[in-house]
Amino acid sequence: MLASRPSFLNVRSLVRELIMKIAAFCLMLAGPILPSVTHAQVSIDMARVTCADYLALSAADCFSA
Rounded to an integer, what distance in angstroms lies between the CA atom of residue 65 and that of residue 63? Predict the structure, then answer.
């Protein structure tokens, strides 16, 4: 009868395996969600940029269209 009862080490490894599966599942869910939350793009309304604004930029800040 003692052989059929799970030992402490077997229970511990099963708990670790369960925690790893839960962590993997959470990471799988977080993967598609995080990029939409951390949306860090800047939009520029090019219709409002004048020639004077463009010419006032330094050479390092200039961009080409």
Answer: 7
